[in-house]
UniProtKB/TrEMBL annotation:
This is S1 motif domain-containing protein. Residues 299-390, 438-474 are annotated as: Disordered. It comes from Nocardioides kongjuensis. Residues 438-447 have a biased composition (Basic and acidic residues). Residues 455-464 have a biased composition (Polar residues). Residues 302-313 have a biased composition (Low complexity).
Amino acid sequence: MASVQLIDDERSASALADLLNGNARRRPVAVVTIPAGRTKPWIDVEEIAREAGSLADVYLMPTGPFTWDFSNRMAEGTQVYGGAGRVYPVGHEWATDLSKSPLRFAFNEADGERATQKLISDMLRMAAAAGLLHSVPTRELRKVDTTVKMVVAGRALVDVGNLFPAAIAEELTVEDVPIERIVAAGLRIEGWYDAESNRVDIRQSLRASGEALAEYAVGDVVLSKVAKVRNGNAELVLYPQTTTPPVVVTVLRADVTANHEDDLRTLMTVGEVIPARVTTTGPDWALALHDVDDAEPIVSAPSLLPGGPPWLSEESEHSEVDEPEAVTSLAMPPPAPSPVQVIEPPSPTRPPAAATPRPSPAMLDRSRPGPTPQPASTPPAAHRQTESTRGLLLKVDGLTAEIAGLKREVLNLQTQMLAGADEREQLRFLLDQAERRANKAENDLKSTRARLRKATSTSKSESPAGNGPRFADPEQGFRYLVLTQWATRTLPSEQRNRPLADFHIGPRFLESLEGLEGIKPEKVADVAFEIVTGLAPQLPSREVHHLRTGSGGDDPVRVRDDGAIAWRASLQVNTPSARRIHYWVLPSGQIELARVATHDDFEI
């Protein structure tokens, strides 16, 4: 457990600011503040210190005069005070990019619980990014072989033989992968248990990328995660960094859309999970998005642990964000409380009322000096008095006026505090509404970009006939489509070793293609390319098998008089009346395309 260091004077506050702005720091620093008027923070600083261990330093700072000295030494927007908390990562990027060190607010107990968990997550994520997990531990670790009991709040709880379960931290396992995509309840895991932090490290059990991606084949439609997007290219992650470096594939504009003027930043979003077709397997992976159909089955993403859940899952096109009832107009915030009525006691003198200052964080600092009371005027004496009596009366009148002034100031400050509290609640309400609208807009943006990407990827097949090549001979037109698919899906460096073999087109093929609705000729040509090149039998989605004389598994295989054997492959799956393609494999090995038909049609 890390020790909590208290910042309680100007010297220590200045030293903390110098530490954050200097170059000597090697660990993240968590700073939790105590709001004015309280002796303890809403944020659980002890829990943060327990989770920090040797990975971060933890500081606690009350709101006071030295708080402002700390703030004055920090870059604009990077300060922390008034009960909030913040974790500062290693380096100085946070000084110009505030998203690198988010401020976590806490105005009550419930806020404190949420802010505590967010700060712990920030701290562990920053420690992992700083490479602190790769350092050799100075204490003994115990190897455990146990089962995941449950997954909750970014943690997987496992039984290590203690009274309380140990935890697997999401942030310390695989970067930017939620814990439910790493482990699941009931999964058997192996790892190293750290008694001091009560955590289990399972990183050494993570699967290497070569093993995890071994089941992918050319032509498979797989899931990938967008890591970077530029105008003309994007980086897609097939597998994250585990015991091996991440598998990141760069796709060009031509791999995504048929329009060479499209900006990829309008078609995909960083963090979005999108399907892509494998055109080349590892180690030099290649992907394409422009020819992926909605009806095609998607191969499940590999697991990060043996027997674990897939590390990626398809995103729903519909937003599941809990949005306000009316998103076009903002709901009215809660009403403000009635102002406090100031009733002033009568006094022999009445100093002029001072202008009410605007509420500010400094008002919450009870240690700041109060205003100097105004001197009271002396009433005229009705009778001649001795010097001592006159002095006492003047003192009484002065104290009476001072008390009245202080009471007025107290009541004014109470009014300002109520107004400030109400303003804070209204701002929190508006912030909540804005966050919900932003989340909905982000989900809508992802959905719109996905639809736009699909629309642009199919635009080449839906373009007007006048814009593309036209053939008087339908057979030449179909052969052109097959050649186009071969040239699109085969890299120039591989075309010499993987040429498009000659094939025959049967007398009923083009007629059946023209009469069959629900599928485009480009899709049929794509599958024909896979059949001719021998790729189709390697793709599970093609479901290649012999075409028999009937639907029974024991029915004999169709064999033609010249020795050709009939085969069948899937053009579509998981759709009503899914389309199939029938073809002959001649004794010479050449392919003869026979017919396209529906699922229940076995003619050839």
